[in-house]
Every structure is written in C-alpha cells, then in structure tokens.
Amino acid sequence: MKKPLLLLTILFCVSLNAQNQPVVLKDSIFPLDEVIIKGNTILGNKFVAKNRTGAAYFLSKEELAQFDYVDINRALNKIPGINFFEEDGFGLRPNISIRGTSPERSSKIAIMEDGVLISPAPYSASSAYYFPSIARMEALEVLKGSSQIQYGPYTSGGAINFVSTGIPDSFEGKVRSIYGSFHTGQLHTSIGDSFENFGYSLEYLNFNSNGFKTLGNNLNTGFDINEISSKIRYKTSEDAKIKQVVELKFHHYDEVSNETYLGLTTADFEKAPYMRYSGSEKDKMDAEQIQYVLTHEINFTENFKITSNFYHNEFKRNWYKLDDVVFDGSSQKISEILSNPAQYAGHIAVVKGELDSEIALKVKANNRKYLSKGAQTKIDYHWYGKNNSFHDLEIGFRFHYDEEDRFQWEDTYAITNGFMSLETYGEKGAQGNRISSANTFASYVMYKYKFNGLTISPGIRYENIKLSRDDFGKSNPLRSLNDVSSRENKVSVLIPGIGFNYTFNNKLSVFSGIHKGFSPPGNSVGQKPEESVNLEAGIRFSLDTFNAELIAYQNDYSNLLGNDLAATGGLGELDPFNAGEALVNGLEMLITTDLMENGDIKIPFSISYTLTNAKFLTDFGSTQDIWGEVNNGDRIPYIPKHRLNTAISIQTNKFEFHLNSNYNGKFSTTANGSVEIPAYFILDASMIYKLRSNLKLKTKFLNLLDEGYAVSRAPAGLRPGHPFGVYAGFELNF
Fold first, then answer.
1. Domain 2-733, CATH 2.40.170.20 — does that match?
2. Of 592, 595, 451, 597, which Cα lies nearest the Cα of 57?
3. Domain coordinates in residue numbering, the chain
4. Is the peptide bond before 723 cis (omega within 30 degrees of 0)?
C-alpha cells in the first residue's frame, strides 16, 4: 500500500504551488501584555515560553524540521531538565524523566496531545505503551515549575504537550518521503484548507523498518506503523457577535513491531551488540489506537473565552513476548537469567538456541485493552486594572474515566536447532484476568497578575480519584461474577502552587516558584499518593541574538512511588509501591545565539546542560530489578547526573546544514550503583537543499561517528542504541 500511495500523492502534488510561511516571533524577554493562544496549546510559541513564571520550552515546527526526527528521544535532547533511557533504538516506547521523576515508561509525567491526556489509561495504568509520533507534530511543548498544576494529575516533574498538525488558514499540503539504512522508510502526507466557516485537514504517516538487530534465518526485527488523522472545523462568521468554533478530530494508529524484552549478556553485547537470541523469534507487538476529540471554543468577548474538549481514546495491544525460560525443570524470568548468566548458564544456552529442549520457552500474550474518556473545560477571563495592570483568571475542570482490561495467557515452545515450535496453548486469562479503572474529577484555579515588571501567578488544583480493580481469577475466562476479587482506593488532594517573575528590562528577568508535586496512588486499599515539595529559581538574560537561561530546582519527596513493571524487571503487576523519602535537585542551563546573521548566511548555535542529583533517603526492598535493595543515599537508577547537548547550523537561502551532539553521562541500572551504563556521545547531522521554493531535498546521518553504545539493561539484558544510519528523501509543499 505504501508505494502506490506515495506515487499517487506525488503525481497529485507536483503541479501545485508553495504557500507563504507563517511569521515566527523571535525569542526575547519583554514586559508584554498577555498573549491569548489556541486552546490546544500550553505555550503557543517561544515568545510566550520565555516569559513564563516557571520553566518552559517550545520546540517549534522549524526546529523539528531540521532532522525530521521520528525518535522522540532525539527530539528532546536539546531541552534541559529532561532525561530518558532508550529501549528499541527508534523511540517507539520512550522512558522519559523530567526533573528526576522515575523514567519507566514515562509513567510520572503528564503526556498530552492538543491539551488532552493521551496515555492509554493515565490514572489506572499510567505506563505509556502508546506514545504520540513526533513525526506528525508541528510543535512540542514542555512545562515545568509551578504553573504545571494546570495540567495534572502528574505535577512532580512536568508536562509534555504534543501539538498536532492544525487546519491551515488557506489551501496547503505536504509530502515528505525518506528512506535509508535498515530499509527504514518514512512517508508523511497532509492536505487541508479553510473557507469562511469551514476548514479541514487530512494526514497520513507511515514509519517502517526492517530493524538493525539480527535474528536467525534473517527474520525481521523491525516494525510497520500507520497513522491517519483528520480534522474538520466549523466557525461562525467574523462579524458574529459571539464567535464560536467547533472542531472534530479523529486519529487512528496501528503498529506491528517485532520487538522483544530480551536483551544480551555483557559478554555477548561486547562481541555482537546487534544480535538477538533465538528465543525471541516469536516476540511481536500488535497495537491499535483510536481517538475522537470534539472541541468547542466560544469567545463571548475579546476578554472572555471558554474552551471545552470531549474526548474518547481506545488502545489495545498484545505484546507476545518471551517471559520465562525452562532448564532442568527450573523456570526463571528472563530478567533474572540475563542478570545472572553464570548462575543460569543452562537457561542462557536454551534461549540462545545452543541447546535443544522441548518445553523450554514460555511466551506470554500480554493482551490488554485500554479506555480513556472524559470532558474538560477551561474558562479564561482577562482584564486591565488600574495603572495598566493586567489580570488573568483561568478556571478549569475535568471529568475523566479510564480503565485497563487484562486478559493474558502463556504458550510454551520447544527450541530445536535455534528455531522455536509451538508445544502447548495456554489457557486464556491464566496470566492476568482483571479490570483496573479510575473515576476522577479535577479542577484548578490560576490567577495571573502583572504590573510593570512583576508577574505573580498563584494557583491551586484539586484531584478527587477513585481507583478500583476487579480480578476475575486465573481460572475464570468467562468472567463469572461469582468469583471476583475487588478492591478500591480513594484519594482527594489539594495541589497549590505559586510562581513569580520580575522583568528588570527587556534584557534581564528572574523567576521562582513553589508547588506541590503529586502522582496518583494505586488501587490497593489505603495506599498513599506520591507527594513532594518542589522549588525552582531561575534567571533569563537576552541581548540581541544571545539568550541564556539558568534554573536551579529541588523536589523533596515525602513518599516516592515505584511501579511494578515487567519492563524494568518487576513482576508486571503495575502495582505502585511506597519507596519512602527521596530528594532530587539540579541545574538546567540553556544558551542560544546566532554566531553570524546577515542577509546571506545565518549560524545559530545552542547549548543545553542538565545536572541531576536524584537520591533515595529511605532504606527499603522491592521486586524491581532496577531498584532491588535500596539504602539511604543510593542514586535513583536510570537518571544520569550529567547531560549535555550542543547544536549548530549553517543556513542560507538555498542550503541548510545542522549538527547536533549529545553527551549522556553514565548512570546506574541498580540503586546500589553496582551495575552501570557507560557514558556515550552521539553526533547527528542533516543537510537540506531547496531545489525550488516548494521542494526540498533532505539527508540526515544518525550516530555519525558510528558509536557502539549501550542504552539500558531494561527490560532484560543489555540493549544497543541506534548504529550509524543514513537517510535521504524530499519534502514537497504545495
């Protein structure tokens, strides 16, 4: 399907003309009047981000286009305060940490698309096995600090909002096609138009690869992802007394990826980091996501606006993957045998295919369905007071329901001459047969006062959460209500915060804030939520094209929560557990400038640095491989102390060259620090040539120095980062 679609799209587009590009506000610090932005954004542009009372970053459409990244990890590299560990080398399942939050499956940050929570079940099962594709976004917004209490429920670290391709103001479209190493292809097409009262957009994205890992008999280790998005909009006439906009959004995502939890032993990684063991032959993820969002915006006056979203998200996936290995009558988890290869030498030989065995491999069908739906409303009223002071009052509330439905089983396989064959089918539901759900109500009030150079933003959030679980048992596939074990947990919490910003002139400003960090608990009766006291203080400086920002922060946890994830070596029950006190503090630095700027050439440069100290303050034990036995003073695993990114470009009217380097410091993979991932340095480059005003030729190089590096030991064993890859293609705008 992909090649015919590409050819048809090109033939349709080639005769059409390019459209004018939008005007982009430059970065600056300036005592401006409030900028009222679209309802699907947090910030809207860099200009607003630079004038917040807390830390914020806006990754623009132009920045995203420099590399056309499909890997969210690489796109986030230049933003300070963010850490992550990779898993598959393509960014399909990110593990993101903001200001030291636990990175596992990005479960401790608020992830949104167009201002709507997008994780499959953000309250009842927050681990994000679905993540929006950065390739179809026109902007990325990251918010940290006190003002993030608008975007709960996760307020300890920060919020990420993906801004999807919007409906254009006039007729325009795009075709982008890229192909390269490992038979990796990307096709992205979009078209849209607006009329007086009606507008629409239609978008298609395909991302596929054969994968860079090798498996016996040249089996495919890659993936194929297809996405379709559409938007239709109706708005009242410009002369209407009360202006209204209604927009309907539809998005469909499907994925088939031959991805595994099974990594490599240290010895094997050193010899052949891109190999895969024979025991992962059958591992495959099948996933599908559907989203509907109805947005209504009503502008009573220029000062008074109400925006409402009604959303319905469905996600289902079956990750069929090796879970246990049997040798000599002993069944062991793959995380256990990869952590202790000498102790489990027989198990390792079986999983490598070096030893034939009949009932040797247990492959679990991690079959789950998710539902997330709700309604949210934001009321904004702003006015000018005495002495030209500015006031803005924002009130929001959200009714939300989500659930995770587990119906899992486990099949057994023999392995002969390195190839797997089915021995027995497992009983449906025997490896998980339950529904976890959450009914929630959230509301907040934010007030902003601006007078001369001073801005004060106090606010408070309220979360009322009821978490439930109905377990039908492992021998009840028909889910008879006579054999149900239920439990319920309730929590209500107030989350206050306040931020300050003082602008001395258009060159210098300082800001600070304090707010309560919060993450919901699990559904175990009486379990307490994660709570912290979060402080930040920063300074912003701007002179001509030079912009600098330095921020210090501290998150003091009274009750840190961990999640029991199979992805991090746990049992996979997803039950949070109390980890006691913890302290995270650090520094964030961002400098941007133009080394040269005249009519013919521009050389922008940026450098960002993140220092993160993240330590436990309590002794405890867990079933998590990455935590295990924890002692007071141990570092929180998978969070490097240092991360540094630099980016430089050379831009002319016809040609662009971009170079991006990223240094990721070493980090421990266990709390006691006994096992580490070494530091690594990655260099990416891209070139863009404007063949015509509406046609660009693009080339990019990932891991230009061909650095062989490990990215994690989770879920089980060492995993490599993306090797050297070269990709080329074109972008046609019309």
1. yes
2. 592
3. 2-733
4. no
